[in-house]
Structures are given as structure tokens and as C-alpha cells.
Amino acid sequence: MGKTRGLFITFDGPNGVGKSSVLLGVAALLTQSGCNILTTKEPTSSSLGQFVRDAEEVYTGRTFAHLIAADRYFHLESEILPALSAGKVILCDRYVESSLVLQRLDGLDIDDIWSINSQVQIPDLSIILQAQPEILAQRLAQRNRLSRFEKNNSRTRELTFYQEAASFLSSKGFNVMFLENDDVPLEQIADRIAQRILIIEGDHIKYEL
Hints:
Elements: E1 7-12, H1 19-32, E2 37-41, H2 47-55, H3 61-85, E3 89-93, H4 96-105, H5 110-117, E4 125-130, H6 133-141, H7 148-152, H8 155-170, E5 176-180, H9 186-208
Parallel strand pairs: 1-3, 1-4, 2-3, 4-5
Helix pairs in contact: 1-9, 2-3, 4-5, 4-8
């Protein structure tokens, strides 16, 4: 029997860590290796996802956490799960890790956040990028517009919450990969991730046979 299910890979980390650039680098390498790639993101590009983006400055706390989770479940049902069934390798920019950090910065407890998100699909690999706080601050200073999370919280606190989120999710069965993305060349970190994904895919194909 051939392969019947794709792979689900997520990219997370503090604001300014370079998630999107690394994801695109990985996508290019996997495409060259013959993988059928789907790149996606959260909040989604749907009308609900756009509402969530626009609502960031209006809604906070539990209300905003539920809006984020609703968009995530819609994302799973409408895009991620169908792509998995089609055998695609899905690379997602942000996932539940972001909620376990940003909603904590917004005043919620980690267990409360998880209770809203506990029915999500567990990724095959959860990548969390990190960098030194001063490097993150320098990168954010170059942006024209900052979100309220970027303006109102320290990079050190955000990094700490990501480390705690990684430990929490590992206890829930997530396969977490921590990587530094400060002075490491983009090509090097993208290649390391791509090779890890190809190993997982190879093992998965063997399992499906």
C-alpha cells in the first residue's frame, strides 16, 4: 500500500525571529527534493482570519483567544486536514504554540488556553525558532507597524513563554524542535530543518507501506 497521509510541520517563535523567511527557505528545499508542498499561515487568509487580524487592537483576553482558536479549527477543517489526506507536506507559519504564548501575554493561564485548543491536530514536527532578545528588538525596530503584543511586551518574557510552551506541548505528545535563528545563515538553518523533515517523511513512507 502506498503513502496515504502527508506531513504537518509548524513554525513558531517570538515576533522578529524570522519564521516566514525560514519557512520559505525550507519550502524551496523540499520542493527541489520532490515534495508536494502547501505553505499556509495563521491567522488564515479567510474572512475569519482577516477579522482576527483586524480585531487584535479591539478584543483581548479570553474573547480574542476564542477568535484565534475558531480560526485555527476552521484552518484545520478547510485546508490542513484535506491537504494531509492528499499526501501533501504542509508548512504552517504559526500554530497553537503562538496561542500558548501570546494569549498568556494577554492575561490567560496556559491550561485555560490549552482547554480551548486541545482538539487541534498534533503536528508531525513543531519547530520553534529563537534568538537573543536584543536581536529580536533590533529586527522589530525596522518594522513600520507593530502589533500590540510587540509594543507592550518584552522579548525576554516572550522567549520564556515559548520555552514553557515547548515543555508543555512535549508533555502532550508534540515533537518539538528548538533552533537558534540569530547569527546562523538562513540557508544553514533551512537545510537543517528540511533534512529533518525528509527523515520524518522517509520513516512515514516505510510505515505506510
